[in-house]
Amino acid sequence: MRWSDYAIWWHVYPLGFLGAERTALPPGEPPRHRLPDLANWLDHLLELGCNGLALGPVFAAETHGYDTVDHFRVDPRLGTEGDLVALIDKANSQGVRVLLDGVFNHVGRSFPQFADVIRNGAASPYADWFIPEGDGYHTFEGHPNLVTLNHDSPAVADYTVSVLDHWLDRGVAGWRLDAAYAVPLPFWRTVTDRVRQKHPDVWFSGEVIHGDYVSFVTEGGLDSVTQYELWKAIWSSLNDVNPHELAWALGRHNTMLATFAPQTFVGNHDVTRIASRLTEPRHLPHALVVLFTVGGIPSVYYGDERAWRGVKEDREGGDDAIRPAFPATLGDEGLDTQRLHQLLIGIRRRHPWLVRATTEVHSLGNGVLSYTLAGEGAAVAVALNFADTPATAEVPPGQWRTEDGDSTVDPATGKTDLPPFGWTVATS
Known about the structure:
alpha/beta; TIM Barrel; Immunoglobulin-like; 2 domains; 5-stranded antiparallel β-sheet; 13 helices; 22 strands
């Protein structure tokens, strides 16, 4: 098993987490040294049971961080390169890997190479970095401030490799590749192969929302992709009291696990928080149980461990509610949810083979789903009651030991009687 097979990420959007300004600082303004404040939360990450810090954008950008203008410079709203390296060093000293968020599908309009093209046109040495379209240049999904890079240009591949190597040299363990689904697979293969020559232990996870997930690994050279299918099935099946949707998604998930361990989540910086997405608050434990028992590499979005709420809206500033500042201290609100995270992460830590384990469904229907996973001479059983009435679920008979939940599994029959909205996790 690679180090990434043991990873459980705490995912932070730094510009929001640290209360940074909405737009880039004016030229000449001194940097705001906010990143050291993030280093103070490494103990919280470790107490939660995580061992990885997945950072959102930290590079100089125009606004939200995904409109990068300089991949070699830390955004002054967050601090300096020294601040970031100090954070990386402190994390590494505590056994915490750091993942950076790299945007290589598009750049902000003030990206210096693009500004040179605007000034000099075809005479610019960067003319082939971008794709002419009409009277301007191709942009990402219609966003005028996000200019798409030309991935057929060898110079763009060279630039991307140089950025990845630069920060890997400074101690990061891997990269989340933003909008990976929009980039041609041969580009990713070229880049990842070249980077691995110098950094063989690097881990690449691509943002893929839909499509042929496996091809990004087999053809693109990535290690993992974001498992949006499972994310959607978790909250949707719970809201609809329809375990069939989740069971189908778990079958799809099994086919992915035959090739790679997907990056799993119930929340991130781009989606409505899980506590707000679920129409029934008593379904939150069910979502967390699935996240931490099925195969894959899980991540926890900051604040979700305290059941924070926030709805993403399709408007300017519509992400603000899901990317808030973290308080200086955490009180008791949501502490029960944090303790549930700790308990479930603890189960996963004791069964690291779960990272590539496939699920076998046993009970399915009438609001009930039960499944088991097996590996290395051990097994995990899960039973979930989505409904507001009592129900019975079954798993194969065995020496089951209840880890937590609302009921126990009968070793002789494998049956468990679940109360309304009940759940149980057992191991053997």
